[in-house]
Amino acid sequence: MRRTGRKHRIVDLAFLWGMVVISISCKGSVWSTDLREVGLYDSYAPIEKSSQYQVFINEKPVQVWRETCHDMEAPNEETHIHTALFDYSVGAQIKIVSSTAFTDFVLSPKRFNIATVKKGNELTFVIPEYYNYTLVIPGQEPLMLFGAPDLSSYKTENAVVFEKGVHTAPDGLFKLESNTTYYLEEGAILNGKVLIQNAQNVKIIGRGYIDDRTKPSRGNFLRVYNSENIELKGFGIRHATQGWQVDMVNSKEIQVSYLNLLSFGLNNDGLDLGTGCSQVHFEHCFIGAGDDGFGWHATNAAEDGEEPLTDCTARDCIIWKGKVGHGIRIGSSLETSAVKNLHFKDIDIVRIADGRAIVIPHSDWAEVKDIVFEGVRDEKPDQGGFVAAYIGQTQFSNPAGYRPGSISDIQFINCVSNGTNIRLEGYDEKHKIKNIIFKNVKLAGRPMQQSDIKMNEYVENVVVLND
Prior knowledge:
Blueprint: E1 2-3, E2 31-33, E3 47-49, E4 53-57, E5 60-62, E6 65-70, E7 78-87, E8 93-98, E9 106-108, E10 117-119, E11 122-126, E12 132-136, E13 143-148, E14 160-162, E15 165-175, E16 180-184, E17 188-197, E18 200-206, E19 209-211, E20 222-225, E21 228-233, E22 236-238, E23 246-249, E24 252-257, E25 260-263, E26 271-273, E27 278-283, E28 286-289, E29 294-298, H1 301-304, E30 309-321, E31 328-334, E32 338-352, E33 358-362, E34 367-378, E35 385-391, E36 406-413, E37 416-417, E38 421-425, E39 433-439, E40 442-443, E41 446-447, E42 453-455, E43 459-465
């Protein structure tokens, strides 16, 4: 890691072996093991070169890695994912070569209907205006392609630069400072959790990893608390233990783009928002999660207050979800004044082992309203349920005493699922679910019907529209 420019002088850590390491704007000191001589990840146990796949972009080879991740379905075992990070360019030709023969395959997102040429063990296709893809060949470990723009312009003389190598904070926590850009070179690994708290104008940019697979400890991983004007862009998150991968509370004006997450452990939500978040925007992210892909909630009014979760968006993201949880969850805990003005657009749930595409399990008192789910596509072939929304006390309700909330003005537009079950349940006459619109929704390959909805007497004004 180094910082260029005059603001701070950081000396190359390779020359400080055995000495106190300078703080780099993180409260804990940082040690670095240089991987420059042995290759990008040759000495890093969770990552090795793939012998299963080769990837070429416009005939130029791209390095493919075989990554080891924790699997919540088998806590003492491992799951293996092959990954390739490439410079995205619309219209580029991608060629994938498998080391073993195959007949069937699934290339996602399916919604693009990408024309694919198969010749022997090779697949060739031209990428549309989209960044991330998955290839599943029956009997083989999956391949994930992560597209990203060139981010080298962020590597300026005033940036804190984490160079290629492993960087570990002695206390296991990188605390980032205001008015600072942190640049992660490809091959850089931040081993430990990251905290942005009571800070402004912070950027984490680059193509390295934030990764605790080798020294896991429980807890939420990348945390943004009581902060504003934050940018997270381009890097990977690899989390090996219990906790949400990205968690934000009481923070605003945040841009999150081109992240790739692979974490399949218990309670490993992907991109989570909490109380008091506003103007948070996610785009072009790949969310590999053991639990909910997006988990937007409000879990602790006593500690976090009751400012509304409002005016946030997610678009053009892929979800690859494990055994528990759902694709998109608003709730369960909603201990805040309001959850409103949220928009999800073009979210592809390319794998979901269990759970529904969208759920709003409302177990507290917030007013939940004005939420749009547009172009959410659940690719699970044998999906049972598409949407569930209900108001009621659960194990996640505030322990001080249950207070019911409300759900209203929710739209589902141009969504697709093989699940034909929709469940809507209000609480009582004063706490209803109302004004719900399903427009041009397809279930099991056909237009949605009013009969697909199962609802109780505390639900009103539910409309199904098909053009």
